[in-house]
Specification:
502 residues, 13 helices, 2 domains, Rossmann fold, six-stranded mixed beta sheet, alpha/beta, globular, 20 strands
C-alpha cells in the first residue's frame, strides 16, 4: 500500500478483496471496505474477529496480506497526510531501551527514574513531528493530564497510559486516526472530554475509525461497521449483545461451588493509611475495613489512588510497612511474606496483564494461579490438573490450551487471566477493570460468573468505570477523590448501580 495525495483533492480509503492469515487461521476473508471524505466510522465485532489486525494493515504496520488497499490523502488541510494506529494499550521501554518490567516495579522503583517522564516522552514526540507546544498544553488541560507531566511512564495507571496515547494522537492530527479501544480505563468525565475532542479534530480534516463496542460515542460518528467471520458488514445502528449465548450458560466447576476457606473474618483494615512520594501525596488518611463475604465497588476518577490502594492490600507496595494495615487478621509487618499474602488473593488488573509472561501457554497461565507465579515452574498434582482442565473447558479455551498467551486476541488473553485469577477459589477476589478488552457478551458472561462465585461466599473488591461492566452482586462502595475517601456507603437498591459509576 502506498498512500498518496488524491488527484481529486478528497480523502478516501478503498479496500478490496483483502485476505490475511495468521498461523494458518484465515483472519480476513475477501474483505471490502470504502471510507469517503467526511465519513467517521466505528468498527465493532467480537473479540478476536480481526479488528486490530485490519487496523494495523491499514496503518501499514502489518504486512503479508493479499488484496488491494488505496489510501488517498487530501493535499491542503490542517490534518497531516498520514495514518496513525493507536493500540489498545501503551507499550513503553525503560531508559536502556528494553521493556522487561515486572508488576511490582511500578511501586518499588518510583524513585529510581527507570523510565522517561511524560514531559520527556511528549517532548521527543513533538520534535519528531514538529508540533506546537501551545496546542499540547491545551490538550493536556482538556484531558486532565497537566499534573502528570513530571511522572515517569511506569507510574501511570492504565487510564493514564490511555490518555497519553490519546494526547499524542490528537496533537498529531493525522488525516486517518484509528483508535483501538479509545475508552479503556477512562472515567466518565474523561470519556466525555475525549468525545468532544474527537468532534473537534474531525472539523480539521481528521477521519476516525474507532474500534469499540461502546455506544457512548462522539456526535461526529456517522458510520458503523461490524467485522464477523473475516468480512465487513455495514450496520444501521449498534446491535444488542446483552444476552448470553447458550454455550456460556454453564454451571461453574464443582471446586468453585464451595465457599473459600477463610483464615479470618477480617480481610483488610486500614487505619489512617497514607502513601506519598516526596511531596506528592497519593493516599491521605484512608480508613477502611473489608470483612469476609463482602462485595465492594471501588470507584474514583483516573488518578484518584485506586491502584495504589489495591497494591497495599495485595502486598505489592513497600509503604505498607510504614502504615497500620491488617490483612487476613494479621498486622502487616508481623513476619509474613508477600507470598503469604498472595495465597489468599486472586487478582487481575490491566497492569498485571501488561507484565504477565506472554510466552506461557494458555494451560500454564491458568495453572500458575495456584502458585501466584507468572509462569508454571512445577508439575501439578493430578487433582489440580483436572481443575485447570475444567476451567479451560468452562471458558471455551480447549482449542487454545496449548497456544502461547501472546498469540491470542486480547479478549481471549483476558479470559485466560480471569481463569487464572479464580483457579484457587481465593478468599479475596480483586478485579481491577477485569473486562478491558472483552466484548459485551464476554463481559456479561464474566460478570455472571462473578455473581455466582460471590453467591458462594467469596469476598470481592471490584473496580469498574462503566455501568454495563459491573456485576449485580455489589453491596457496598468506597469512592476516592484526590487520594482521600470521598464516601463509604451501602448499596441498598440494586437499581442505583447506574449512579455508582463515574
Amino acid at each position: 500500500m502506498k498512500p498518496f495525495n488524491s488527484p481529486s483533492g478528497d480523502f478516501g480509503l478503498s479496500i478490496s478483496d483483502l485476505n490475511f492469515k495468521y498461523q494458518q487461521k484465515q483472519v480476513l476473508k475477501g474483505l471490502n471496505w470504502a471510507i469517503r471524505s467526511g465519513e467517521q466510522w466505528v468498527l465493532t465485532g467480537a473479540s478476536g474477529s480481526g479488528k486490530s489486525t485490519l487496523a494495523k494493515i491499514i496503518a501499514g504496520s502489518t504486512k503479508g496480506f493479499d488484496g488491494h488497499i488505496e489510501l488517498n490523502f487530501k493535499a491542503h488541510t490542517p490534518a497531516k497526510a498520514t495514518a496513525l494506529y493507536v493500540e489498545s494499550w501503551y507499550q513503553f521501554k525503560n531508559l536502556e531501551g528494553v521493556a522487561n518490567f515486572y508488576y511490582q516495579q511500578r511501586y518499588t522503583s518510583l524513585q529510581a527514574k527507570d523510565t522517561l517522564t511524560v514531559n520527556a516522552e511528549l517532548g521527543a514526540f513533538g520534535r519528531l513531528h514538529n508540533l506546537s507546544v501551545l496546542a499540547l498544553d491545551e490538550l493536556l488541560s482538556q484531558l486532565g493530564f497537566s499534573e502528570l507531566k513530571d511522572s515517569q511512564l511506569i507510574e501511570l495507571s492504565s487510564g493514564e497510559h490511555k490518555k497519553l496515547q490519546l494526547v499524542k494522537a490528537l496533537w498529531l492530527k493525522p488525516q486517518l486516526l484509528i483508535i483501538d479501544q479509545p475508552y479503556t480505563g477512562l472515567d466518565a468525565a474523561s470519556r466525555k472530554n475525549l468525545n468532544q475532542l474527537l468532534d473537534e479534530v474531525t472539523q480539521a480534516g481528521v477521519h476516525l475509525i474507532l474500534i469499540t463496542n461502546d455506544d457512548e460515542l462522539p456526535t461526529c460518528i456517522n458510520k458503523i461497521a461490524k467485522l464477523h467471520d473475516g468480512v465487513m458488514e455495514e450496520l444501521s445502528s449498534f446491535e444488542s449483545s446483552s444476552a448470553l449465548p447458550k454455550h456460556y450458560q454453564k454451571t461453574i466447576p464443582s471446586f468453585l461451588q464451595q465457599p473459600p476457606s477463610y483464615t479470618s473474618d477480617l480481610i483488610a483494615r486500614m487505619e489512617n493509611v497514607s502513601v506519598s512520594y516526596g511531596d506528592k501525596e497519593v493516599l491521605k488518611n484512608i480508613n477502611w475495613e473489608v470483612r469476609a463475604g463482602e462485595k465492594w465497588l471501588l470507584k474514583g476518577p483516573n488518578g484518584s489512588g485506586k491502584s495504589t490502594l489495591l497494591s497495599l492490600i495485595n502486598g505489592d507496595h513497600p509503604q505498607s510497612y510504614a502504615n497500620t494495615l491488617y490483612l487476613f487478621g494479621q498486622k502487616r509487618g508481623s513476619g509474613e511474606s508477600i507470598w503469604d499474602i498472595k495465597e489468599h488473593i486472586g487478582l487481575i488488573s490491566p497492569e498485571f496483564h501488561w507484565y504477565f509472561d506472554a510466552n506461557a501457554t494458555v494451560w500454564e497461565s491458568i495453572a500458575s494461579g495456584l502458585y501466584d507465579s507468572v509462569g508454571l515452574f512445577k508439575q501439578l498434582p493430578y487433582s489440580k490438573s483436572i481443575q485447570v482442565d475444567e476451567l479451560v473447558a468452562y471458558f471455551d479455551l480447549s482449542d487454545d490450551k496449548n497456544e502461547f498467551l501472546h498469540t491470542l486476541p486480547l479478549g481471549k488473553q483476558r479470559l485466560v487471566l480471569l481463569a487464572r485469577t479464580i483457579i484457587k477459589n481465593p478468599e479475596l477476589l480483586i478485579l481491577d477493570e477485569p473486562c478491558q478488552g472483552l466484548d459485551q457478551q464476554q463481559t456479561n458472561y464474566f460478570n455472571a460468573l462473578v455473581d455466582e462465585l460471590c453467591g458462594n461466599g467469596m469476598t470481592l473488591i471490584y473496580v469498574g468505570h462503566q455501568e454495563s461492566a459491573l456485576p449485580n452482586c455489589l453491596e457496598q462502595k468506597i469512592e476516592l477523590e484526590n487520594g482521600s475517601v470521598k464516601i463509604i456507603e451501602s448499596i441498598k437498591n440494586k437499581d442505583r448501580l447506574s449512579t455508582l459509576v463515574e
